[in-house]
Amino acid sequence: MLSRSLPAALLVIVALVATACGPTGNNSPGTGGSSAGTGGSSPGAGGGGSAPPADISGDLEIGAKLGCSPAPCKPEKGKEGAADEIAYTRYNAFAEKYPDVKVTFTEADFDPATFLTSVAAGNPPDVVRISRDILGTFIAEGALEPLDSCVADHGIDMSQFYESAVAQVTSEDVPYGVPDSYDSRIILINDSVLQDVDLTPEDIDTSDWDALSQVNQKLLAKNGNKITRIGFDPKLPEFLPLWAYANGAKIVSDDGLTSQLEDPKVAEALEYAVSLINAHGTAPDFFDFRKTGPGSAFFGPENQFTEESVGAFPMEQWYLNELADSTPDEKIDFQPFKDRQGNNISLSGGAAWAIPSSASNKDAACEFIKTVTLPDTWFAAAKVRADMRKEAGTAFTGVYSGNRVADEQIFGELVSEETAGAFYPGVQLVQEVADVAYSLPPIPAAAEFDRIWRAAVEDVMNNGTPAADALAQADQEAQDAIDSAAQ
User: What's the domain range around 391?
Assistant: First the structure.
């Protein structure tokens, strides 16, 4: 299948990369319905598992950046393209454990087009780190090695990883990746804005859409027709799957084979989320203010919170670390995103490690994946970062892995109110919602599916097209893309 459909795959995936750029790009998620137990013995806290095959040697090329090569090594501080302390601590753990393996790095971020070309030519890296939301595309292309034998033979305990992350790398009960990172969404709230309009953090409640509309009206501010403050930013188009899930719908079936964009509940969710934007005037005005208004610098000390240019919005947990570093004294509160029944929910994505189908050293690749995702390895890396932050006198809000056991150790032993400061309640909330996160499953046409539903959202926001009409057309296009890719 790889050689037959390569040109179409290249076009589709490049489109996804273009739309996913930026700090609020979608890290789209999966359904969490797949069993984690696909083989391997239970590792306990250290995640040791069974012994690997005896011959772990030879050359191993890793599709990632390190900034020094071969491992073990430490990147030069400030060197452009160098990996951070989390990466090199984990990678060096493998290099030190297996000195007979010569480890090198591509020193480039994952590029879908280059990857497919290398797989077709038979010369890809031996292991790659890939976003889970596009994994299904490469499964359908035959570009990834099924990892059932890897998991069983090398003793990788899939039950140690978050269930929704495992579901996102599992197709027809076979894993094609091992979860690496993991993110969750919570709501960040600007306390000073709430005080200005006499509201409390508890008033930011996504379970009551009528009440949230009223809160949005109170939070937003305008000078005539000019927006001076955003109220509740629904984060469209990227968070449509979360809004649909809150309304009891999924935009694709659990097996990833049937588009469900035509579900009336998806349309209802989209219409509502767009109404929060339209309350400010027009969508173009809304996005122009977000892009150019006060606090438009998403990073650094002059952000939307310090400039009081937003009331609240849902966001991935990594932004806590950014805010804790750049504006540690800013008053920010946190609430969970809730469905309409009042249950805490979240949207999750992240990266996974995978082995190309034409990789040369699959045994070493599998052992590398096992080693860098072990709880002990993650903890050691997090400890290095925690110590560095402590020495620098800056906040440490944790390291979020795809391994639940690792996170329990990291957040149980390394993260506290003392290390995270005022952002500690947010850190705790992220931990609470991690297990209730929704993730999109592997979709054969993941890139094209993503492009199609985002375009439908843009059509509704910018052109006023009824959500039901835009999504009905998108559903047919999406289903055609899925069917074609799955053949």
Answer: 2-183+349-432
